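lol ok so funny story. i was supposed to be doing the assay writeup but got distracted and ended up predicting the structure for this chain instead. priorities right. anyway since i did it might as well share w the group, maybe its usefull for someone
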Amino acid sequence: MRYAPATATAAMFLVPAFGLSCAWIVLGESISLTQALGAALMFAGAWLNTRSEARQPTRQPVDVSS
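and the output, tada:
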């Protein structure tokens, strides 16, 4: 299965958020409000990036000079 570069990049940016989540669940670490907000923003950004609407091909600009 092939993935687009944008999907791979979104997954790469989720590594710290999953690390924070695993540290909270497995190790019982405390999470500050700033850390929780940052993780939420990373999850939201990855979701927005990988939605099917985000994968629409870009249209070529129309040349109106002629």
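The first helix runs from residue 5 to 13. The chain has a mean pLDDT of 80.
back to the writeup now i swear
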